Amino acid sequence: MKYDVIIIGAGLGGLTAGAKLAKEGKKVLVLEQHSQPGGCATTFKRGDFTLEVGLHEMDGPGPRDMKTRIFNDLDVFNHVEFIKVPQFYRFINDRIAVTVPHDPSLASERLTEMFPDESGGIKAYFEQILSPRKKTAENDIRDTNLGEFLDSKINNEDLKLVLLGNLGYFHDDPYTLSLAYYSMAQGSYYLNGASYIKGGSQVLPDHLARFIKDHGGEVLFNHPVTGIKTRDGRAESVTYRKKGNSEILEAFADEIIANNAIPNLPELIEGEKAIELRNEVSGLPAGASLLTLYLGFRRPPGELGNKYYSTCLFDSSVKTQSDIFKNGRDDFSRRSFIFVDYSQIDSGLTAGEKSVGSICCVDYTDGWNGLERKEYLAKKERVASVLIDRLDKIIPGIKETIEYYEIGTPATIERYTLNPGGAVYGFAQTPSKRNIDPIKSVNNLHIASAWGKTGGGFSGAIYGGYMCAFSILRKKTLNI
């Protein structure tokens, strides 16, 4: 079978690219190894509870947000409802507690009231993240990391920690995170606010998959790709099979889009091009993974006094920025985490009095891989017990309201997404990270995923997919 475009993977990047290309009349085939679309943008059912795999809040969509244009183009707003999140996050450690608003003026004012001696640093911080391109040009900060920037502007360590409350949205260490990348991503939360997809993140990829089909494309689930064949330096076809069936199928296309993990891509190609591609993508470290404890409550935590959608708890052992990275590998009795209470909004995840929440923290596969099945399950149970006890200290009585809980580890993410190390954000966004998007070794092989130049998270994947589609459309228009 011949197609204009074949897309490997049905994550948000691949689906966005496929939806745009299908709308423009291209014959599209999407091949997904999992049973549903979305990658980490998915939900799953457990009894009365719909549990959210990855989305806590998405920046925007707002008037100055590129996603608004994309969603209008792909008819998202008529099929997906976005619920505004009430505040950015609540930050707590043993020394301070503060709620950070989404409005940058209010956030700056509140933080200045708490840290009056740091008014200049707070102003510099918000100027940087609200106008990153301007500040980058003025200060030549392209190779600066976030940690050094904060150290140069702010003296109070607790203030730095407050500003880094949601660092886990992007990376695990402020001293290896690109300031330019962070500024664009964090700035969008302040400029555009944030929202949650009613009914769960699965609603968005489900719509995009339908959109592709409605515009003449095909989306096949449970169909892992087994290889990419090349001829004369170009990728000309993709081999794949249906799970449970050993028969290898083949489809041809003018352009191929990789929505899968880029470090895995060379394994799909044979011969000289595989070597060239492996060299091209080598030396780029993958980002961190996450551990999530999914919680189903008999009644909403608000009845116990919780007023906050996102609560960022930093352990007392985290006293400076340099402690954050170490804490990401600390015992779970001290590991910093974010608790999300979906009952604070009209999430659409449960009915009646029941509600859901999650505890999420930075984690790595090396703490889970290699364990025997029995040991793995026992460790999950220990970690769940520790995290629930810690949550009960923040919201007394919440432990007794838990009807269901389940842990997803970095090994879980690696198994379902095939991302090396369970990396949820693709390559680590370090200041020195080189750009491999577009791929140079195979000129008709494109990236549309968290591993591309726009990075991870919902917005990064969506931007990358849309830009990938435009590069293909432009390429065809110019007959390149």
Structural summary, described in words:
With 480 residues, the chain is an alpha/beta fold. The protein folds into two domains: 2-41 and 200-284 and 434-477, FAD/NAD(P)-binding domain; 89-197 and 286-416, Polyamine Oxidase, Chain A, domain 2 (Alpha-Beta Complex), CATH 3.90.660. 33% of the residues lie in helices and 21% in strands. The chain has 14 helices and 19 strands. The strands form four sheets. Strands 1, 2, 10, 11, 12, 13 and 19 form a seven-stranded mixed sheet that branches. A seven-stranded mixed sheet has the order 8-7-15-16-17-14-18. Strand 12 and strand 13 form a beta hairpin. The chain is globular, with a radius of gyration of 22 Å.
Could you write a compact summary of the structure shown?
The protein is α/β, with parallel strands linked by helices.
Feature tags:
alpha/beta; FAD/NAD(P)-binding domain; Polyamine Oxidase, Chain A, domain 2; seven-stranded mixed sheet
* Strand fraction: 15-25%
The radius of gyration is 22 Å
Largest beta-sheet characterization:
7 strands, mixed
Give the total of beta strands.
Answer: 19
- Structural class computed from helices and strand pairing: alpha/beta
Silhouette: globular
Provide a count of the helices: 14
Report the average pLDDT across residues: 95
Oligomeric state, counting identical vs distinct chains: single chain
For the record, what CATH class of the largest domain applies?
A: Alpha Beta
Measure the end-to-end span.
23 Å
Low-confidence stretches are none
Number of domains: 2
CATH topology of the largest domain: Polyamine Oxidase, Chain A, domain 2
Under the CATH scheme, which architecture of the largest domain would be assigned?
Answer: Alpha-Beta Complex
**Share of helix, binned:** 25-40%
